[in-house]
Amino acid sequence: MTDCIISDKDKKYTKRMLDYNLFHKHPVNKLIHTIAIPQIIWTSCVLLSFIPLPIVTNMSYLVYGLMVTYYFDIKREYGIDMSIFMGSLLLFSKIFMLVFTNYLAITLFVFTMSWIAQFAGHYVWEKNSPALLTSIFDAFTMAPLFCYIEIEKNYNTVKNIKKLGYASFNHVCNYVEKASINYQKEVNIESCFDKTAKEESSEHNTSDLNNSDSTISDISEGEVSDDNEREVSENSDIETSPDESKNK
């Protein structure tokens, strides 16, 4: 992948990558940088978050945008890949700050140890000075790209991440589809239950109304019969009263 960059880009970027590669030949030093550089990136994002800025809220987002723009200028493919690579580390830094209350102490520890490990890789195994002492700009811009190339070349991590991303996306789509179907089924079942309950309630209300009507009619009939009995008794009293007066 380094060969692709060297053959594709102009002399300016080719020289920068070649110069950086000259400082990193020993496999142990390469491994140290592959591990330490991502730690430095996300810890730097945490530290840059303390510098407020208008519009982009803080310095970490501005630096990320400038770095990605630089990689797009080198090569569009690397601009896309590095935006994902560094964007993931930026996102991790924000999640880290939310999860850990003592994130600043942990960040400073990881940041310091990562730099110490890189210097040790140069002085103990590589037997040379770090690229940082030669060109600060090239060290900070080429280091993340170098790390990305080493990870992709030796561990095939990028392709695995892409496969994992596609698989996760398909899994999420299938989950959403199944959840939507299950939700629709539940809605249909609830609507059936509601319809049945309404029908039963309507039948119950109709039955209660009929029962109340029959009760009212029974009461009315009873009252009418009581009135008739009173009238009959009163009439009989009236008929018997003249006879009683004659007898007297």
Question: Can you walk through the features of this model?
Answer:
This protein is mainly alpha-helical and 248 residues long. The chain has two domains: 2-155, no CATH class; 158-239. 87% of the residues lie in helices and 2% in strands. The protein contains eight helices and two strands, in the order H-H-H-E-E-H-H-H-H-H. A two-stranded antiparallel sheet has the order 1-2. The longest helix has 91 residues, at 157-247. The model is unreliable at 1-7 and 243-248 (pLDDT under 50).
Query: How many E strands?
Result: 2
Overall geometric form:
elongated
Walk across the major sheet and give the strand order: 1-2
Radius of gyration: 44 Å
Distance between the termini: 143 Å
> What is the strand content?
under 5%
Q: Note the total helix count.
A: 8
Helix and strand content put the structural class at mainly alpha
Number of domains: 2
Given as residue ranges, the uncertain stretches (5+ residues, pLDDT < 50) are: 1-7, 243-248
Helix content: over 70%
H/E element string?
HHHEEHHHHH
Mean pLDDT: 77
What about the largest sheet? Answer: 2 strands, antiparallel
